[in-house]
Design goal:
Elements: H1 3-15, H2 18-25, H3 29-43, E1 48-51, E2 54-57, H4 59-84, E3 90-97, H5 104-115, E4 119-126, H6 128-137, E5 142-145, E6 154-168, E7 183-185, H7 189-198, E8 207-209, H8 212-222, E9 225-229, H9 230-239, E10 243-244, E11 251-260, H10 267-284
Parallel strand pairs: 3-4, 3-5, 7-8
Antiparallel strand pairs: 1-2, 5-11, 6-9, 6-10, 6-11
Helix pairs in contact: 1-2, 1-3, 1-4, 2-3, 5-10
């Protein structure tokens, strides 16, 4: 099985047409057909149904897509890591929950440069399910997640608890919050549950958002009330006319580190985790 066969398969999954894929890849239509035929023989299943309308993936083709993307990603990461050894002593790939780009991530990266001066570092932000999947596939070394998904190969440890507070452009106290301009925090399952229990009168609002960054952007644009991380709330209320709402309960979101269990004692992993804890301590001081 060759990589160009996999890449051709993935292109057809997008184009749904052998001729269009041939044009996009700069090869002949017969080359595309041969690659797919060889791939189907190697897998032992038909991947596409060919017809005048184009190429539609079979159930086996749809099933194979995730594996194909993982293979291409793994190959790309392998090339990067091997090349990095020409210049660096190691490579560390880290990721943190979307939304942490203004909180923990910058400090962590800064500290990683200090504790791993001869290593290359790749940084991402993503959501917990994708980071856990990347860890499991070996495409990530350390993740900071909100929602652990317990798999035997992954080890989780508590890192910190993030506090969210209610911020409003109009209301100073909870009783003044207007439900029509309130943005319900759907950022995580934990926050949604805590919010429903603590504020049942605001649990069925007109608008909810799954991103605190988007909620803040809407607050800037239209005004209203939403929940923010405590540090973001301090920054926002210092920059714009707004208030931390008195009487509104703080909501808490546990944060966890995630690594592959069998790599727990590797020096580069231990240093990466140490840098993370130093970054958290620096935030708290």
């Amino acid at each position: 099985m060759q990589l160009d066969h996999i890449e051709t398969f993935l292109d057809i999954m997008e184009s749904r047409n052998f001729n269009r894929t041939a044009d996009r890849l700069g090869v002949t239509q017969s080359t595309v057909s041969t690659r797919i035929r060889n791939l189907e023989q190697a897998i032992g299943s038909e991947l596409f149904l060919r017809g005048r309308a184009g190429a539609e993936p079979t159930a086996a083709g749809r099933r194979f897509e995730a594996y194909a993307r993982a293979m291409v990603s793994t190959w790309s990461q392998a090339r990067h890591d091997v090349r990095a050894f020409n210049r660096f002593e190691g490579t560390l790939r880290v990721a943190a929950q979307v939304g942490m780009t203004r909180s923990i991530l910058p400090g962590w990266v800064e500290t990683l440069f200090q504790v791993l001066p001869k290593s290359s570092i790749h940084v991402e932000s993503d959501y917990s399910p994708q980071m856990i999947s990347d860890l499991s596939l070996g495409n990530l070394d350390i993740a900071v997640v909100y929602a652990p998904r317990y798999l035997p190969e992954i080890s989780y440890d508590p890192l910190m608890v993030e506090e969210y507070v209610m911020v409003s452009t109009a209301a100073r106290v909870l009783s003044e919050v207007n439900p029509d301009t309130y943005i319900r925090p759907g950022y995580t399952v934990v926050l949604e549950k805590a919010h429903a229990e603590a504020l049942p009168q605001l649990a069925i609002g007109r608008l909810s958002m799954g991103s605190e960054t988007l909620a803040e952007a809407m607050l800037r644009r239209t005004g209203g009330t939403c929940y923010m991380r405590s540090d973001d709330a301090r920054r926002y209320t210092a920059e714009r006319p707004s208030f931390v709402v008195e009487g509104a309960p703080a909501l808490q979101q546990p944060v966890h580190t995630a690594i592959l269990a069998h790599r727990k004692h590797e020096p580069i992993i231990r240093r990466g985790i140490r840098a993370l804890h130093l970054a958290v301590m620096s935030m708290e001081n």
